[in-house]
Amino acid sequence: MNKPLDAFVPANHLLRRVEACIDFRKLAEPLSFDYHPDQGRPSIPPEVLVRALTLGYVYRIPSFRRLCEAISENLAFRWFLFLGLEDEVFDHSTITVFMQRVGPKGFRSLLTRLNHQLAQAGLSTGQAYVDSSLVPAAVSGEKLSPSTLSPEEFARVAIKENDVFFSCEAVREARWADFRVAKRRLVRRYFQDGKGRLPLHPRDPDARWRTMGKRKAVLSYKHHVLVDERGFILAQRMTHSTTRDPDVVLELLDEAPADIRVLTADTGYSLGRLRRCLEQRGIEAYIPLHTRHLEHRKKRKEFHLMDSKHLICPAGRILQRSTWDKRHECWLYAARVRDCQACNLKTTCLPPRSVRRFVQLSEYEQEFIRAEERNSTIRYQRMMRRRKTVVEGIFAHLDALGLERLRRYGLAAVQSEGYLAALAHNILKALRYMAGPRRAALSRALTSWPNASSLRTDLTTA
User: Fold this and answer.
1) I want to staple 87 with a disulfide (CB 3.0 to 4.6 A). Which of 83, 313, 390, 431 is the partner?
2) Distances (CA, A) of 233 to 16, 200, 426
3) Residue 51 near residue 80 (C-beta atoms within 8 A)
4) What SS3 class is residue 237?
5) For residue 179, what are the contacts with CB-CB under 8 A and spacing of at least 6?
6) How many other CB atoms are found less than 10 A from the CB of residue 376?
């Protein structure tokens, strides 16, 4: 008597727990609109491919080819993908085409719908942490060489496009077949800087040079995550490694399924513009003040802001607002020469060889003052300790899922990788909080893959 495939999968198997907690059909429902039910050959249901990609990250299978081999050999994988013992596994190129068709927007919808499921289950909270980490690209920069042109010549001929400089240079092309003299041909090369000293890889020109800790500079991307206090990734974004951390925070907050009320971050997010935006959204921010700001505060300790246009010095004199510094987003307040020269404190207040006092004040001084008061509380210390524990655990788990080094080329493919890794992370994290059968219909088993017309019809016409 032949046993069904379901009988070979243990009751406590990881995939059974995932099946009982996560509704993959609802997750992949928006992706079915990219498929036409009547045109072309019968397609593989998007739910099956989403399940296959989830397997690749949960079990850390590095390539699609090895993933298809593992599905063919593992009975639990076949059961999870509705495949019978006699069914053939789809080709690895099918997954590649699926990822290209869906793109980052489609995989972002998967993570968003999963987070809505978690929010409906009461697992999401309004307390979040934001941080970023560098992830090495799938290409190596060891054999890349700087431009053969001098910095002056490169600056004249290089063209800047999308923050990348490129030029056409003559490169030797060796002819090993007949050992003749090598010829030269014009090649389009990409560089990160305007002097031609930071070459980019031709296969992945979106990867940028950045120094990772104490190690040497590598071609990498930057992974931004917004997580809640339970460790669920509410939103994520892959960007160029040269992207500033505060520039991505508002986009992450817009994608979060929960209403964020408290946000904690490190000193890299200590930007006045960001603090003001968070206050306008009603978000309580626990972000350390930058050392540069603390030094400025120490220098003008006895200077008090009278209003937006006037500052009062320790002697009671008024400094008037004069010049706007666009780069640092601050105003320069200047005292009158006669007030400073007649002041008794000029020997300790005036810098050497200065006839009057200038004070630099940020446009967001009020936000910094409120942040300084908030950062002096015990709650701030607790939030910072908690942030370090949660965020470091998140990046460590993502590395364990295979995101310690990227597998694809190009920013769009890398963003899809980030969403899939975050999806697998949240699924595994949800197993700690969710238990029990999700619904009786999930116990369905398809005996033959070619005859799985009902599942295919449901997913392509949804």
Assistant:
1) 83
2) 23, 31, 7
3) yes
4) strand
5) none
6) 9
152 contact partners, CB below 8 Å, separation of at least 6: none
Rounded distance between C-alpha atoms, residue 101 and residue 71, angstroms: 22
Question: Residue 286 in 3-state DSSP?
Answer: strand
User: Is this structure's pTM higher than 0.90?
Assistant: no
Read off the pLDDT of residues 42-100 as tens digits, 9 standing for 90 and up. Answer: 678 888 888 999 998 988 888 889 999 998 888 888 888 888 888 888 888 888 988 88
Computed over its alpha carbons, how large is the radius of gyration of the chain?
29
Secondary structure letter of residue 170 according to DSSP: E
Query: CB within 8 A of 223, min separation 6: which ones?
Result: 132, 133, 134, 135, 236, 237, 238, 395, 398, 403, 418
Residue type, 451: N
Q: Give the C-alpha distances (Å, rounded to integers) separating 244 from 29, 241, 274.
A: 34, 8, 12
* Rounded-to-integer distance, Cα 38 and Cα 26, Å: 22
**C-alpha to C-alpha distance for 119 and 230, rounded to whole angstroms:** 12
Strands 262-264 and 318-325: unpaired
Helix ranges restricted to H, 329-364: 337-341, 346-349
Contact 295, 289 (CB under 8 A): no
Q: State the amino acid at position 249 in one-letter form.
A: V
Cα within 13 Å of Cα(423), Cβ side: 29
Residues 96 and 299: their CA atoms lie apart, in Å, by: 58
Strand 183-191's sheet: what is its strand order?
159-161, 164-173, 183-191
Instruction: Say if residue 152 is exposed, middle or buried (CB neighbours under 10 Å; 0-12, 13-18, 19+).
Output: exposed
Q: How crowded is residue 319: how many other Cβ atoms within 10 Å of its Cβ?
A: 25
Query: Tokens at residue 78, please?
Result: 């076949």
Q: Give the pair of three-digit tokens for residue 67.
A: 């993933």
For residue 15, what are the CA distances in angstroms to 85, 143, 163, 204? 18, 43, 44, 35
The string of DSSP codes covering 26-59 is HHTGGGGGGS-SSSSSPPPPHHHHHHHHHHHHHT
CA distance 449 to 456: 10
Q: What is the pLDDT of residues 423-447, one digit of tens each?
A: 999 988 888 876 543 333 333 322 2
End-to-end C-alpha distance for the chain, whole angstroms: 37
The enclosing H or E element of 19 equals: helix 14-21
Total number of residues shown for the chain: 462
Instruction: Give 65: exposed, middle or buried? Use CB within 10 Å, 0-12, 13-18, 19+.
Output: middle
